[in-house]
Amino acid sequence: YNFFPRKLKWSKTNLTYRIMNYTSDLRRAEVDRAFKKAFKVWSDVTPLNFTRIRSGIADIMISFGTKEHGDFYPFDGPSGLLAHAFPPGPDYGGDAHFDDDEAWSDDSRGYNLFLVAAHEFGHSLGLEHSRDPGALMFPIYTYTGKTGFVLPDDDVQGIQELYVKMLQLKTERVCTHFSFHRSFFNVDKSANIYLNEIVLFFWRLHPQMVEAELVLLKSFWPELPNKIDAAYENPIKDLVFMFKGKKVWALNGYDIVEDFPKKIYEMGFPKEMKRIDAAVHIKDTGKTLFFTGNKYWSYDEEAEVMEAGYPRLIEEEFAGIGDHVDAVYERNGYLYFFNGPLQFEYSIWSKRIVRVLHTNSIFWC
Amino acid sequence: IPVPLEDSHEFTEKDLQFAERYLRNHYDLRPNPAGIMRKSANTVASKLREMQAFFGLEVTGKLDEETYELMQKPRCGVPDVGE
């Protein structure tokens, strides 16, 4: 992947776009959908958000034109030059132009508008052409089939160097910032994964790594939703379970286990349960605790059933940690409950809180 | 138009104009200070080498059939080198 000179990028993550006119090759709705899908290619792997506006000046102004169309970079009639876009910046910056002498389509005929738009928006965000013939940002048009476009890794690495590393810097700032404003930082899901390392979405801590590594879910598990509610690891089954809303995924490393996602009520939760706030597996008992609202459940992993006598009130069993849990993980016989800016270290053995820590002390801030 | 040519291939004047326009659009080929029409051959050769390197072609600095074919493929209008 390559960047424009001076590594031009947007200094904000919320960007707007406006469709100025349409090609006659496709219905308006098809054009709208192609552009929306093309922006999603990039928002799926970065913190970027794209909002369409229908009047005024947008960051990314999209238009169809032929030959000389007002920017002194004329198109050349059918085929040859298909489209072009400008790197991030004011005025023309970010704008994308499509040659209306081309035959635009939403399939393999002529040129697929979604594919060309996804490429051009890569330029609008700061990527130049890649030398990798398999990359979306390779300059020559290739039709990659109608179903399930997955952004090639070269493009993911390029755009994340622009917009995720930036977030990484912010993370460091969060740590320093946190040291002055304690309430700034909270964690809403964590999981013990791969025994020695703890994964906080989106940070990854490994005993051998000094820095917390910022990772996007999508770069590990593209099929997972952008954000999840809770996660835990079952070391016996060597699987990680992730929860979003009423769904649960089982992961074996980078792979999603067959037949997943499933519905959480298939694990024995009431059908009306909408989400899980936090989950933690306790190796010594073989039980997994699930926290939702002010209650918690206990799940017997061996029997694969919800234990009788649950749910119970969190306050009854874990007095002092508050009436809800953002995230929780287990380590060396202690449960670490996250609740806003605080972390409660709870001894499973003596059944009481032994320490109260600041949430991002986990990052040694 | 001084486009260094592979001996074996017959290019028409139109082909050469197309190749020169391609290099101007995508590899920032500029008119030679010596004059509008006269472009020093080594400027064009160096741009051809840049393009051949970018696409993983054999880097000869000469317009050959493979290089010309690639120039004709539909593509994005943004230059391949920083501008």
Taken as a percent bin, the fraction of beta residues of chain B is under 5%
Please tell me what the overall shape of chain B is: globular
* Strand residue percentage of chain A: 25-35%
Mean pLDDT of chain A: 84
Count of DSSP H/I helices of chain A: 6
Q: What class do helices, strands and sheet pairing of chain B give?
A: mainly alpha
Fold and architecture overview:
The complex is a heterodimer of chains A (365) and B (83). Chain A is α+β, with helices and mostly antiparallel strands and 365 residues long. Helix content of chain A is 18%, strand content 30%. Chain A has helices at residues 28-43, 113-125, 153-163, 165-180, 217-220, 314-317, and strands spanning 14-19, 49-52, 60-65, 81-85, 96-99, 104-105, 111-112, 190-193, 197-200, 203-205, 213-214, 230-234, 239-244, 247-252, 255-256, 262-263, 278-282, 287-292, 295-300, 305-306, 312-313, 327-331, 334-339, 342-347, 352-358. In chain A, strand 9 (197-200) and strand 10 (203-205) form a beta hairpin. The model of chain A is unreliable at 173-186 and 192-197 (pLDDT under 50). Helix content of chain B is 43%, strand content 2%. Chain B contains 3 helices and 1 strand; from the N terminus they run αααβ. By secondary structure, chain B is mainly alpha-helical. At the A-B interface, strand 4 and helix 2 of A face strand 1 of B. Strand 4 of chain A pairs parallel with strand 1 (75-76) of chain B.
Secondary structure: elements and pairs:
The complex is a heterodimer of chains A (365) and B (83).
Chain A: E1 14-19, H1 28-43, E2 49-52, E3 60-65, E4 81-85, E5 96-99, E6 104-105, E7 111-112, H2 113-125, H3 153-163, H4 165-180, E8 190-193, E9 197-200, E10 203-205, E11 213-214, H5 217-220, E12 230-234, E13 239-244, E14 247-252, E15 255-256, E16 262-263, E17 278-282, E18 287-292, E19 295-300, E20 305-306, E21 312-313, H6 314-317, E22 327-331, E23 334-339, E24 342-347, E25 352-358
Parallel strand pairs in A: 1-2, 1-3, 3-5, 6-7
Antiparallel strand pairs in A: 4-5, 8-9, 9-10, 10-11, 12-13, 13-14, 14-15, 14-16, 17-18, 18-19, 19-20, 19-21, 22-23, 23-24, 24-25
Helix pairs in contact in A: 1-2
Chain B: H1 13-27, H2 41-54, H3 65-71, E1 75-76
